Amino acid sequence: MFSQRIIANILSYLFHPIFMPVYGLLFLMWCNPFVFYAIDSPQGIGVISVVILNSIVLPLIMLVILYRSKLIDDLKLNQRKQRAIPFLIMIFFFFWTYFVVRHRLQMPELMTDIMWGAFLSIMAAYLINVVYFKISLHAIGMGNFIALIIAASFFSLYGLAGALAVGIIVAGLVGTSRLVLNAHEPREVFMGYLVGFVAQFVAFLT
User: Fold this and answer.
1) Which end of the chain is less enclosed by CB atoms within 10 A, N or C?
2) Cα–Cα nearest to 101, from 24, 201, 34
3) Crossing angle, helix 20-31 and helix 109-131, to 10 degrees?
4) Which of 43-52, 72-81, 173-182 is least confident?
5) Quick one: pLDDT band at residue 35, thresholds 50, 70, 90?
6) Nearest to residue 127, comparing CAs of 77, 88, 168?
């Protein structure tokens, strides 16, 4: 049981939802560097740097400030009532990142859709958290990524059947990890997959 919890914690940190937009951008760049920039190009490095700063670094700084100010009791946000303010902060930063990458950097549309999907997902998560239950953000992030793999298959230089299979397996492992850690109930994980997948596809279609 102890080893299971160690693995579950590693997977939870490695595939934390705050990292998924960056993983998504790197995946697109790998799929087709001619359309989505090469990872090691000035444009690719610039895009990744902007997204890391605005969607990871600044939100984490704000989260620490909330913790230091005793507005939240736990950085992991295990309590449903503790999630409202951090979710609103994430909504702001994800929308701001989307605005920057779309209107300032003028990135290819599928790349900007990653941030739009993240924004729609956190909006849905906030509403579900307020009205119903503590939906799994980890599962939402994996749902986003599975939808991205499917969409990327239309542009990729490579076949993505293997990537899709690996993505589904990883999504299952991440969801299982949240259950092993008693962070969520099964319905919260399953709903997370659904919300993330649907929100990302809505982003691609709008």
Assistant:
1) N
2) 24
3) 150
4) 72-81
5) confident
6) 88
Q: In terms of residue numbers, what domain contains 45?
A: 2-205
Tokens of 76: 């992991």
Q: What would the two tokens of residue 105 be?
A: 């950097």
List of residues 6+ apart from 5 with CB closer than 8 A: 180, 181
Name, in order, each residue with C-beta under 8 angstroms of 82's C-beta and a sequence gap of 6 or more: 72, 73, 74
**pTM of the predicted model as reported, rounded to 2 decimal places:** 0.89
3-state secondary structure of 160: coil
Count of structural domains within the chain: 1
Q: State how far the Cα of 188 lies from the Cα of 174, in Å rounded to an integer.
A: 13
Dist. CA 51–CA 160, nearest whole Å? 25
Quick check: 182 and 127 in contact, CB under 8 A? no
Two tokens, residue 116: 């739009």
Q: Are 91 and 119 in contact (CB under 8 A)?
A: yes
DSSP letter (8 states) at residue 18: G
